[in-house]
């Protein structure tokens, strides 16, 4: 038989070898064959195999591959492998499968090999059938080249006939479908073998032309079906287990393997789907699992009482201990305090003193170094606190970074103060976390039970109040509770509730303090200031309610409303006096800046009111840069990109002012009124004001002097060539209508401010 291949047949063989390797999920494939005792390499795909192929290897293959099934070629064949296959292994072909190519005369005329570098690879049932099919197609091409026979049917029908010839007598249930479509309705069934009809109960006429979806039911795993669809969409072989249903509705488990089969042109023309009923195996697995569970239950039953005791002890420990630090928790402390109050006997005052501790700036450690670093810090702090207390004292972690110490005896106040001082000293020492020296401190509130305390909650509440008083004094402080602190806390709570109600009742208003240009002696803008008139408390100072508004989150709604009102008024003024160049200053807190989307909020207000962005100036203080300065800088930059100007308020009274001007975008500086009031008396203050003005001119930054209250102050600023001023001398904050009147007066006369 002559195997000198023409180009078309060579291409067909190469494509069939590639398709065979692909269906077996192997990266390599090659075909050997030819005239007897003269076999050589006829086609290949992937890594090139050894070319030397002697007649002893040919004879070995003809003796070994006689059952027409794919055979894994390794030592398990029970024979010594030819040198050729040892060469394959040395080249990385660890898994090699061979299947004989037969001719019409029932002779082996070649062998198709597929190989992989993975030694433990296996073939699914469908992959084995696919290799048989590709071997049959390759045999057909070889015989066509030799001129032994010509196909009597159309190519597609001939391929289908070859597929059928492979699977017709198989014991597994086999479907052959068209290659496409993958999407609904799915590939149509063109053939099913008798085993499939026997397994499912369908007749041939009920199956042909349908899709494999007729086997699905509600219990068929959607996730498994999605895996199948994904594999088919990329022409990948797949093997899964799933539940199918028979014609009568009964359900059964199958091991399903699917592979694509290509023709001699390399096109995938069909899917071969092999379904093996594994219901009995699944049932056995279930019974085995159930039996194992029963045995485990029996073993567990023997130790259940002991385990229950251990669990109860563990639950008891967990109920009263903190998981991270192993200290007592809040529940234990409250239970212990309850005993102190309940077992007080004839005494009216419980013998208890509590120290309530809160770590200063603990959130900063979490945000900058991560929660793991925060946990390490809490553990170190816990151990240091343990070293500070006496054996009878009770230390508990009662919150995230909050601790409490109970001194359960009389006359403990002096000892509590000593303990607080010792704790402050211990916690001032650095903590090494991943090479970083972390310096922490705590604020401590101390309370001793008296006649006003009737419950543990009362005692902890007052300790908490004292702790917040200490925190307001600075880091690493302690404070002894007194009744005035409780009254102040109640006042703060009243203020919070009143503030929330004020927002709902629209009790706020906006007034405007004019800003004058000393160059023209005219109003060039105004600063919008919020005012609150409470029906009972009367006029509430912004110094009292702004901080509270920030604490409870009302500042966002309030600040947005003030800016909206101010911009709307500015638009009215500009419409009435188009010849005047006016701008509006609005104070913005760091809390507002750090809220996501703040720049977009300003953009919306500008769009709604119609004012030019350059006519709006946002006033900030240096304190906005204390926390998350980089994030704050990005927000300010996005605001400036809108065209809105940035002014630095209270300049010189905060932190590192010159550094902030250098690092962050600034269009204007407001000289704090403390410098303006002192410059007439103190040479140093005068020099500072002159320096700020000189700095503004050098940086091309506008300078506004605040708090001008006397004529000499105004004259001095004029001599210094300060460009802009505001203060009570010129005008107190007034209503929008009054601003309109001032502007009207300004346009009718030009009297200089003096």
Description:
This is GGDEF domain-containing protein. With 754 residues, this protein is an alpha/beta fold. It folds into four domains: 15-145, GAF domain (Beta-Lactamase); 170-284, PAS domain (Beta-Lactamase); 330-481, Alpha-Beta Plaits, CATH 3.30.70; 507-538 and 550-748, TIM Barrel, CATH 3.20.20.450. The protein has 25 helices and 27 strands. The strands form five sheets. It has an eight-stranded mixed barrel with strand order 19-20-22-23-24-25-26-27, surrounded by five helices. Strands 11-13-14-12-17-18 form a six-stranded mixed sheet, with helices on both faces. A five-stranded antiparallel sheet has the order 2-1-5-4-3, with helices on both faces. The protein is elongated, with a radius of gyration of 44 Å. It starts with 6 loop residues before the first helix and ends in a 6-residue tail after the last helix. 34% of the residues are buried.
Number of helices: 25
Provide the CATH top-level class of the largest domain.
Alpha Beta
- The total number of structural domains is 4
Largest sheet: 8 strands, mixed, barrel
Secondary-structure blueprint of this entry?
Blueprint: H1 7-23, E1 28-33, E2 40-45, H2 55-64, E3 71-72, H3 83-90, E4 95-102, E5 108-116, H4 125-146, H5 155-167, E6 173-178, E7 189-192, H6 194-200, H7 204-207, H8 222-233, E8 238-245, E9 251-262, E10 268-277, H9 279-320, E11 328-329, H10 330-342, E12 353-359, H11 362-369, H12 371-388, E13 394-397, E14 402-407, H13 413-427, E15 431-433, E16 436-438, E17 442-448, H14 456-472, E18 478-480, H15 483-505, E19 508-517, E20 522-534, E21 538-540, H16 542-552, H17 555-576, E22 583-587, H18 590-593, H19 598-609, E23 616-620, H20 629-641, E24 645-651, H21 657-663, E25 668-671, H22 673-678, H23 683-699, E26 702-705, H24 711-719, E27 724-725, H25 736-748
Parallel strand pairs: 11-13, 17-18, 20-22, 22-23, 23-24, 24-25, 25-26, 26-27
Antiparallel strand pairs: 1-2, 1-5, 3-4, 4-5, 6-7, 6-10, 8-9, 9-10, 12-14, 12-17, 13-14, 15-16, 19-20, 19-27, 20-21
Helix pairs in contact: 1-4, 4-5, 11-12, 12-13, 15-16, 17-19, 19-20
């Amino acid at each position: 038989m002559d195997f000198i291949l023409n180009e078309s047949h060579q291409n067909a063989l190469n494509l069939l070898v590639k398709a065979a390797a692909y269906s077996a999920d192997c990266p390599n494939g090659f075909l050997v064959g030819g005239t007897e005792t003269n076999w050589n390499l006829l086609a290949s795909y992937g890594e090139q195999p050894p070319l030397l192929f002697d007649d002893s290897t040919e004879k070995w293959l003809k003796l070994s591959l006689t059952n027409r099934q794919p055979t894994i070629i390794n030592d398990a064949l029970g024979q010594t492998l030819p040198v050729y296959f040892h060469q394959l292994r040395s080249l990385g072909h660890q898994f090699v499968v061979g299947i004989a190519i037969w001719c019409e005369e029932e002779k082996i005329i070649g062998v198709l090999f597929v190989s992989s570098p993975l030694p433990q690879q296996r073939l699914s049932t469908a992959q084995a059938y696919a290799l048989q099919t590709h071997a049959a197609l390759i045999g057909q091409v070889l015989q066509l080249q030799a001129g032994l026979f010509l196909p009597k049917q159309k190519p597609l029908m001939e391929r289908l006939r070859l597929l059928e010839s492979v699977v017709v007598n198989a014991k597994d249930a086999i479907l052959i479908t068209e290659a496409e479509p993958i999407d609904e309705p799915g590939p149509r069934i063109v053939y099913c073998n008798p085993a499939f009809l026997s397994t499912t109960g369908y007749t041939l006429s009920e199956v042909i032309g349908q899709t494999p979806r007729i086997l699905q039911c509600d219990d068929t795993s959607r996730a498994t079906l999605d895996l199948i669809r994904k594999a088919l969409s990329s022409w990948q072989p797949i093997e899964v287990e799933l539940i199918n249903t028979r014609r009568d509705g009964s359900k059964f488990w199958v091991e399903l393997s699917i592979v694509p089969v290509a023709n001699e042109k390399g096109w995938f023309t069909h899917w071969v789907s092999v379904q093996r009923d594994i219901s009995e195996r699944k049932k056995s697995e279930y019974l085995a699992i159930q039996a194992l569970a029963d045995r485990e239950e029996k073993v567990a039953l023997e130790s259940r009482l002991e385990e229950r005791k251990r669990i109860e002890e563990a639950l008891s420990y967990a109920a009263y201990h903190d998981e991270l630090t192993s200290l007592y928790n809040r529940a234990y402390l409250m239970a212990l305090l309850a005993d102190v109050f309940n077992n007080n006997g004839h005494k009216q005052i419980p013998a208890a003193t509590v120290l309530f501790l809160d770590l200063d700036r603990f959130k900063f450690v979490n945000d900058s170094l991560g929660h793991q670093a925060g946990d390490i810090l809490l553990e170190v702090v816990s151990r240091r606190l343990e070293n500070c207390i006496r054996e009878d004292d009770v230390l508990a972690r009662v919150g995230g970074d909050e601790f409490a110490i109970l001194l359960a005896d009389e006359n403990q106040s002096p000892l509590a103060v000593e303990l607080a001082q010792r704790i402050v000293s211990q916690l001032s020492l650095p903590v090494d976390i991943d090479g970083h020296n972390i310096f922490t401190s705590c604020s401590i509130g101390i309370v001793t039970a008296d006649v006003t305390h009737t419950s543990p909650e009362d005692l902890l509440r007052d300790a908490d109040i004292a702790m917040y008083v200490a925190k307001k004094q600075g880091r690493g402080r302690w404070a002894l509770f007194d009744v005035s602190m409780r009254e102040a806390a109640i006042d703060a709570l009243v203020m919070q509730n009143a503030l929330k109600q004020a927002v709902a009742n629209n009790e706020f208003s906006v007034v405007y303090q004019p800003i004058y240009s000393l160059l023209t002696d005219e109003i060039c803008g105004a600063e919008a200031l919020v005012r609150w008139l409470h029906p009972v408390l009367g006029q509430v100072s912004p110094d009292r309610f702004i901080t509270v508004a920030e604490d409870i989150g009302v500042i966002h709604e309030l600040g947005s409303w003030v800016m909206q009102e101010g911009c709307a008024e500015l638009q009215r003024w500009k419409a009435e006096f188009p010849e005047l160049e006016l701008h509006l200053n609005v104070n913005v807190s760091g809390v507002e800046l750090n809220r996501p989307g703040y720049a977009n909020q300003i953009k919306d207000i500008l769009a709604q009111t119609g004012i030019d962005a350059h006519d709006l100036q946002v006033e900030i203080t240096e304190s906005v840069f204390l926390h998350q300065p980089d994030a704050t800088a990005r927000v300010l930059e996005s605001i400036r990109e809108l065209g809105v100007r940035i002014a630095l308020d209270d300049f010189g009274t905060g932190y590192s002012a010159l550094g902030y001007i250098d690092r962050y975008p600034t269009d204007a500086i407001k000289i704090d009124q403390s410098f303006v009031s002192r410059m007439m008396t103190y040479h140093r203050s005068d020099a500072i004001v002159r320096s700020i003005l000189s700095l503004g001119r050098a940086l091309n930054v506008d300078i506004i002097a605040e708090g001008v209250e006397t004529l000499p102050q105004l004259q001095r600023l004029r001599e210094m060539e300060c460009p802009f001023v505001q203060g009570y001398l010129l005008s107190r904050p007034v209503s929008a209508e009054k601003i309109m009147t001032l502007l009207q007066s300004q346009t009718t006369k030009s009297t200089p401010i003096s």
